[in-house]
Amino acid sequence: MYCAPFSCEPGNSLSADSCWNTAHCVDHTADFALPPTSGNFAQIADYKGNPEQGKYVSKFEPSNAKLSNSQLELTLVKQPDNKGFGAVVTGTRAIQYGTVTAVMRSASTSGGVVSSMIVRNDVKGDEIDYEFVGSERGTVQSNYYWNNELDYTKMVRSQALPDTTQNYHTYQIVWTPDSITWIVNDQAFRTVKRTDTWDPSTGVFKYPEAESYVSFSVWDGGSGEKGTSDWAGGPINWAAAPFVMGIKSVTVD
Questions:
Q1: Single pTM value for the model
Q2: Once rounded to an integer, what is the mean pLDDT over residues 51-65?
Q3: What are the start-end ranges of the H helices in the chain?
Q4: Would you call 61 a catalytic residue per the annotation?
């Protein structure tokens, strides 16, 4: 995992060329109903740096992500300490601007279970996201961050949606040098313009623009600090398990 450019840190490696070269974006669709030999998904232990052999990879071991039921499934699993261990799946090509489209349903059938669709640069901290929390199954939350400044006050909810844990919806992020638009089922509910992010106190536009990776995750927000737990909907009700996020396809233009 630490050779791959989405995780590698050259400054903390044995040499500056320890990291694999960054694979840059090409238009693609990952249809997770296709067999494993299609190259749409790979476990990180099997990935050798060729994005054509793994458009998306599970970052952690043991892996709670797999192809099943004609989709990519990410599962949150209960640990002996009653906390959840989830999954993160990331695209292996970096993008800088474009349209990301995912057909999916969230795993957040209990408070505390958080499901996410994210475009992020982990080094710089630029991020554009969708977040699903178990206390709000009828909407999805949108947000963006610049340079790891976690301003939660900028969160905006989508329009009302049929239960996001039981129904598949089409989620899009349209990211250009000038604006970001969040779209669900072909209905745009939010646009942020770069010009609106100007901070006169620092003289910069606080607008995500760093080359980033598309990722999906399910994680235990209920066992976090109080602010995180309250946002996520409190401790997880494990009687409501299993918590399975299902992604049918991802398209990047």
A1: 0.95
A2: 94
A3: 226-232
A4: no
